[in-house]
Amino acid sequence: MIFTSISFWAVFIIFLVIFAMLYRSTRTGMMLYVTIISMGFFYLANGWLMQLLPLTALISWSLTKIMNQYSGSRRKILLLGIILLDLAPLLFFKYANFAISGLNVLIAGNFPIMDIALPVGLSFYTFQAISYSVDVYRKNFTIDVSFLEYIFYLSFFPLLFAGPITRAETFFPQVRRQQTISERLMYSGLWLIILGILKKAVVADYIAQYNNWIFDSPLTYSGFENLMGLLGFSMQIYLDFSGYSDISIGIAALMGIHLRENFRFPYQSLNVTEFWHRWHMSLSTWFRDYVYIPLGGNKYGRVRTAIHCLITLMLVGIWHGSNIMFALWGLMHGLALILHKSLQRILRNIPSNWLTKPFCILITGIFIVCSWAVFRSPNIDTASTIFKQIFTNFNPESISAFWAMRPTWLLMMVICLMLLFIKERYYNRMMIKFIYSPWLVKLLAFAFAVQLAIEFHTSNITPFLYYNF
Amino acid sequence: MKLYFKVIAILALPLIFVVAYALCPIQFPPPGWTLSKLDLKASPIPSQGGETTQDILDSITPPLEGTGEASPDTLQQRILFLGDSMAEGLVRRMADYAQENEHNLSCIIWYNSTTRLWASSDTLQYYIQKYQPTFYMVCIGGNEQFVKNLTQREEYIHKIIGTFGNTPFIWIGVPSWKEDTGFNALVQKCVGENRYFDSKKLTLTRGSDRIHPTFGAASLWMDSIASWMQSSNVQYPIRMQKPASKATQRYPLHLLQPTKAQ
Predict the structure, then answer these.
(1) A129 contacts A153 by C-beta, under 8 angstroms
(2) Residues of A with CB under 8 A from a CB of B
(3) From CA B83, how far away is CA B117, in angstroms rounded?
(4) Nearest-CA distance from B59 to chain A in Å?
(5) What one-character DSSP code corresponds to residue B56?
């Protein structure tokens, strides 16, 4: 299921007509209807592996219910069991082959690699299932939910394939309230959908084509071209994933569920800590609440805090894939966070003004862009080649040739860069203006986004980057 | 409910318009620029098979031998070889074949070129008029391995092969260094299997850029093509005896510089 495909929107419009009729009349009917449609989408994406989702839902829901009847060590053991059971499919599908390869290297073995593929969406619903059980265990979430409600939550299709990871405490109260959906929620959803289409289908997919050439064979290109590819990927990954998140949140809004934003202008961050407060917020807060804090957080002194930080960020890296490069990316961010935390006393004395702020944004930006090179490269060799080309073969002559060859790409990058640094209040003002604009303006805005997507995206579709995770 | 229908109308009307426009035979607006149409035929993963050279350690392999008996046209041909940078190594070896088999060879290498450039410019017509070829060899596509607008590329390929008229030709597939987005399969579909040499079957030693074959590898690549060109697998076999020596004759070689519109 690709949110930028015409077939999805055709199905979604028909879906929405029936949903609108069910929404006000029967809550159970609505949930049953959405669950069936979500399962259908899940089946289309994963085939027979779709059974995993209802199975996980059944086990997780029933064991959490049992766990809730106990207290003390039994409660703890049951929670541990639920987490392990929830994690088992994810560990198997995502890391089994990585473990086999590692074992083969370690003991010079010859264990065959299994022919398995990670089911799309497995990571996201697994994390939601774990967060539900842990929240119930901690008594942060006390609402007694039925199995239908639970499976509706886990399989809710706008969030199923690439998040944002949504907590039970955000989701269930809104489902239960069942009030008339406000105009503001509806049109903010439409605004996000338009924005998401522009981000993903127009810009991210277009600039991706050039970035792929660079990361496939950096040696073929000059240092300047490599630098452009690196900047291009930094833009691509943000627009791709935030675009997807926008569409997901927008679709959920059309279905009456208000979700928090997943990205808040991350490239405006003054430091790495702030970056993680703005980037993929649903994932970073999930790791904070369910990994970093259970490990001990910052309660046990500086050294332990640093270790917890490193472990958490390494896990964030490995979550993106069973590849040494993702682990390295996590390690880089972990070390940067530790460095920032340890320098906080000095940094606090630096005044925040028009001179220091851009400098901090620049330094943070350079680190983030460099870390994306590690994230995107298939191996260390490719990443080092990119940097080597940038520093030893910059070739300024290629700048004019680049401009002549790729004016649209460059223009798109410049416009996006400017929009990335737009002030949040201007963005909010634009959204409000859209929400209260006449119906015809909204229609034209959506039509414009669709046609622009067709102009830039005449044929097949590049899957969302985060589908891989 | 009223609000829902307003939103549904916003979502549905543009989609109805783009689908209707895609099915409509006319372009709008006619002069100047055109409003692109939705590609209803597009499939997400058009690439055929799972073959890739990405994970294979490149190595020089013996040339692929064509199978089956064939009676190639033994007449002397005027061959026009068109290609992008991938063809650079091929034409060197092709010159040996041309001399050995007494063909007249003319080559045009257009760096960074694509089917779009060849189809939308009059370069091809110019060289056809100049050399009056009786046989074409094409190796274009190195810069289109990861393109997305395959339907448009199909039009360009048809335009190029349409320019050849009834003159026989072969199209040499690009030895992909990474799984392509379906361009090679598209060319094969357009030109037919007996006019398409699938280079994916070869593993070739690559140059420092890890994309272009080395001259040594390109030479073996050409040997494979030549062997196939006189086999019964090809629609119009021509004489391509393996040369015993290097070419001493000069042949027309036009090196065209990259241009911006791709």
Answers:
(1) no
(2) 2, 5-6, 9-10, 12-13, 16-17, 20-21, 24, 181, 183, 186-187, 190, 205, 209, 212-213, 216-217, 219-220, 254, 404-405, 407, 439, 442-443, 446-447, 450-451, 454-455, 457-463
(3) 12
(4) 18
(5) S
**DSSP reduced 3-state for B254:** strand
pTM of the complete model: 0.72
Contact indicator for B222, B243 with CB cutoff of 8 Å: no
How many CA atoms, within 13 angstroms, populate the side-chain half-sphere of residue B137? 29
Q: Is the ipTM of this complex over 0.90?
A: no
pLDDT in tens, B120-140: 888 888 888 888 899 999 999
- Contacts of the segment A314-322: beta carbons below 8 A, 24+ positions apart: A315/A287, A315/A291, A316/A283, A316/A284, A316/A287, A319/A123, A319/A283, A319/A469, A320/A375, A320/A468, A320/A469, A321/A94, A321/A468, A321/A469, A322/A94, A322/A95, A322/A97, A322/A98
- Cα gap A344→A347, rounded to integer Å: 5
Residue B165's CB is within 10 A of a number of other CB atoms, namely: 8
Strand partners, B78: B104
For residue A23, CA distances in Å to A97, A191, A443 come to 44, 22, 24
Question: Which residue has 């790495």 as its token pair?
Answer: A272
Contact in structure between B159 and B119 (CB atoms under 8 Å): yes
Rounded Cα–Cα distance for residues A99 and A95 (Å): 6
Return the bridge partners of B105, or none: B79
Indicate the residue of B1, B15, B211 with minimum beta-carbon distance to A9. B15
What would you report as the CA-atom Rg of chain B, rounded to the nearest whole angstrom?
21
Alpha helices in chain B (DSSP H): 2-23, 88-100, 115-120, 123-131, 150-163, 183-191, 215-229
How many residues make up chain B in this entry? 262
Closest residue in B to A449 (Cα–Cα): B14
Instruction: Identify the residue whose tokens are 């335009």.
Output: B159
Quick: pLDDT tens for B153-203.
888 899 998 888 888 999 999 887 777 888 888 998 898 888 999 888 788
Distances (CA, A) of A243 to A196, A256, A442: 4, 20, 19
Q: Name the minimum distance, in Å, from the CA of A349 to any CA of chain B.
A: 49
